[in-house]
Amino acid sequence: MSAIALSQPLQGYWNYLRIERRLSELTIENYQRHLAVCITILESQQIENWREVDASVIRFLLSVSKKQHLSAKTLALRLSSLRSFLNYLLSQRVIDVNPAIAVSAPKAAKRLPKNIEAEQLGLLLDSSSKEPIDIRDLAMMELMYSAGLRLNELQQLNLRDLQHRSRELRVIGKGNKERILPYGRYAAQALQKWLVVRVLFNPEDDALFVSQRGKRISHRAIQKRLEVWGQRQGLPTHLNPHKLRHSFATHMLESSSDLRAVQELLGHANLSTTQIYTHLDFKHLADVYDSAHPRAKRK
Fold first, then answer.
1. What is the DSSP letter of 104?
2. What pLDDT is stored for residue 216 in this prediction?
3. Amino acid 111: pLDDT
4. How far is CA 187 from CA 14, 19, 184, in A?
5. Could you tell me which of 128, 167, 176, 231 has the fewest CB atoms within 10 Å of its CB?
6. 3 state SS of 170
7. Contact predicate 129/163, CB 8 Å
8. How is 194-251 classified by DSSP, letter by letter?
9. pLDDT tier, 109 (very low <50, low <70, confident <90, very high otherwise)
10. Average of pLDDT values for 48-61?
11. Predicted pLDDT at 23
């Protein structure tokens, strides 16, 4: 009885996220996973209705989650998922107030991801392999690094999103927001080689990057292939899509110092996100200060 009562509004919520909020399937899957855990915890406390959930219950839920050795970031995501769902229930008049509003998320330590040095990336992307799968992987990595793409943005690309003549790319980012991004000549060359051999994979649809079975390549497959390349090239650090995106942002900022432009390229809604995500190393900042500040110049 309790499982039915707590789970009953979920299908309507998933439809709301897909149709009205237009969230990606990856985001919805994250919401589903966190809410499933929340419902399990609530059921263990004999809570059968969402009206029984108050701020103290949510704090208990977070304390149980914390004992599962989850990071502060994951706990914050769990609370955010629950808060969003309760907002939906509030709009549907299933509940009268959202108790999650009164609960603060644990603060996560702001750890800056390590970028890959430009020289290391040069070695990584310097491949003359004629194997179709290597040609595909190289095109994916060149495009991610050249345009600063998120994993989901790369995975969702279609052939029609490419403008070869102008070397521009149409991307659908977070919140279903569209942006047009330039990409460089190395990425263009890698894409041209990939498009020649793509037909060998017998593509089922318009997906730009496909698996060996012809289906749109999965998030996990992209991550796995990057891991393989990092190991193959002997990189001193773990290679993943996030690291390529961060390296793009860091190298762009170090070269241009144009925070607003990098914000646009990354598709960040707030400049503060870009400031955290794309740090300049201290030496670079010190050099800029010494060369620019009137009181810093020394003879």
1. P
2. 96
3. 58
4. 37, 34, 5
5. 128
6. strand
7. no
8. HHHHGGGG--SSSBSSB-TTSSBPPHHHHHHHHHHHHHHTT-SS---HHHHHHHHHHH
9. low
10. 91
11. 87
Scanning 18-131, the segments in alpha helix (DSSP H) are 25-44, 55-66, 72-91, 118-124
What are the residues facing 168 on neighbouring strands? 163, 182
Given a contact cutoff of 8 angstroms between Cβ atoms, the answer to whether 76 and 120 are in contact is no
CA atoms of 223 and 23, how far apart (whole Å): 22
Whether residue 20 contacts residue 63, with contact meaning beta carbons closer than 8 Å, is answered with no
Q: Which residues pair with 156 in a beta bridge?
A: none
- Is residue 271 a contact partner of residue 263, using CB atoms and an 8 Å limit? yes
Give the pLDDT confidence score for residue 68 in this predicted structure: 86
Of 247, 165, 171, 166, residue with least CA distance to 208: 171
CB 113 within 8 A of CB 243: yes
Which residues are designated catalytic?
Answer: 150, 174, 242, 245, 268, 277
Mean pLDDT of the chain: 83
DSSP at 149: -
